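The methods section describes the discrete structure representation at length, but only in general terms. An entry of this sort, consisting of the sequence and the corresponding backbone structure tokens, reads as follows.
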Amino acid sequence: MAQVTPHPEDQHKSHRSNWLRAAVLGVNDGIVSTSSLMIGVSAASTSRSAVLTAGIAGLAAGALSMAVGEYVSVSSQRDSERADIAIETRSLADNPDEELQELAQIYESRGLKPQLALQVAQQLHDHDAVAAHARDELGIDHEALANPLQASLASAVAFSFGAVVPILATILVTGSGHSWSIVVASLVALAISGAIGAYIGGGHKLRAASRVFIGGGLAMAITAFIGHLIGPAL
């Protein structure tokens, strides 16, 4: 049989969706939440040290919160996946023929003729029944279950990278201009992160940059408004 040479094709992007979503969310969350917190404090107080302290505290709290939240969330997802695989494993042991027919019906519903669907199901069933049912019936790759620790560390690191932006803007700019430096640096960083995320994921860079730019700007504006209202009253 002649070897088939793959035809040229652009690299697909969808396999990046999980880690890309987590990275973009972490960075954007770090920028928006920390800069908004610092802008809110800046609107309520003229103390540069208070603004910087709020930013550092926001970075630490946010990174830890992201890490714990992602760990708990992904752990719950993995526990659910493992429970489903255990149920399927028991069902395969108790009802192998029924499970084989169920797998064949899945392939038939995807367009295979009944006889071919049964043949495919039988071969996959004989090769690794649990893997076949987990993948095609449950949509789970039992060899690549979610990793809570990896997700936790990635989220914390991504958040920290984002949160550093407004903190550095405050450190590098002295005097009364630190508030505007936070706004400008954060908005630029948001636009860049949105465009990079779109580039990696194959999306529209300008549209993605605009989304995070506008969203981050609104968040900072609302927080600044709240700081102006509350600051004089305290």
Residues 174 and 217 are 22 Å apart (CA to CA). The two ends are 81 Å apart (CA to CA).
